[in-house]
Structure to design on (277 residues):
């Protein structure tokens, strides 16, 4: 083997090994500090694309779950208002039934008519004043809730027609809604309309209830999807701390031994001087 002082190959080898070890150690420390094994596109281009795609799905599903919850809140507000309307209509049944009976004095009939009109006005007030998040609940515009996972095939709209809420919309004719209960015949007609209105309110509550169940189910499915996709995203981009810690220990040892080897290779080169002494 020839002896040369122009190129210390062993030193270059040791230096290159130390450089590679330090790069690996730096990457390991970055993974420990961020908790991620993919910190740039260079780490894993395909994995980064997958993780970002999953992140978009998770964001869309999380907001969709919130949309569904908001939709449930709107529908529950409408259902609560209709429950109060049903209570009011039951009071109207009592009043109309009493007015349909003969033998009442004129003042009693007038009082019953006034109370009946007040009840109908209260239904109108509930219909016009019930709001959710500052928006009227009982409108001609159907309530629509959008959910999706961020893909073209994962979008859905759940639509519920609540409609306006007035005595007439529930089936109480305009004449019965404005006339008093001045005669037993009028009271009996009003009673029939009130019974129809109670059925209409119940049917509407049933429609609303079905939509509430659907939106609740949608929210549950979306929350489950978020859990599964988050787990998948974690598997793709999150660092295994135990493994990374093991690598850090390994690279620390290699760095120390690399420096020792570099020192020895440089020291060995100095031995050439002894030949010329």
């Amino acid at each position: 083997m020839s002896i040369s002082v122009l190129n210390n190959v062993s030193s270059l080898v040791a230096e290159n090994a130390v450089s590679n070890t330090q790069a690996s150690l730096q990457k390991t420390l970055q993974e420990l500090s961020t908790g991620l094994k993919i910190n740039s596109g260079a780490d894993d281009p395909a994995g980064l694309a997958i993780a970002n795609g999953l992140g978009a799905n998770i964001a869309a599903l999380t907001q969709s779950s919130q949309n569904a919850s908001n939709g449930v809140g709107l529908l529950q507000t409408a259902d609560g208002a209709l429950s109060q309307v049903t209570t009011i209509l039951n009071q109207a049944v009592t009043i109309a039934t009493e007015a349909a009976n003969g033998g009442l004095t004129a003042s009693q009939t007038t009082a019953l008519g006034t109370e009946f009109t007040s009840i109908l006005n209260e239904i109108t007030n509930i219909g016009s004043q019930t709001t959710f998040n500052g928006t009227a609940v009982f409108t001609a515009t159907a309530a629509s809730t959008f959910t999706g996972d961020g893909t073209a095939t994962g979008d859905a709209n759940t639509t519920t027609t609540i409609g306006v809420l007035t005595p007439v919309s529930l089936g109480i004719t305009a004449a019965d809604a404005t006339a008093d209960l001045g005669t037993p015949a009028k009271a009996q007609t009003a009673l029939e309309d009130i019974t129809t209105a109670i059925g209409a309110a119940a049917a509407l509550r049933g429609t609303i209830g079905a939509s509430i169940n659907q939106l609740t189910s949608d929210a549950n499915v979306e929350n489950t999807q978020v859990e599964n996709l988050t787990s998948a995203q974690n598997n793709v981009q999150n660092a295994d701390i135990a493994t990374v810690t093991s690598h850090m220990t390994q690279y620390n040892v290699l760095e120390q031994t690399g420096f020792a080897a570099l020192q020895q290779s440089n020291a060995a080169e100095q031995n050439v001087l002894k030949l010329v002494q």
Remarks:
- DSSP finds six helices and four strands in the chain.
- The CA atoms of residues 136 and 154 lie 29 Å apart.
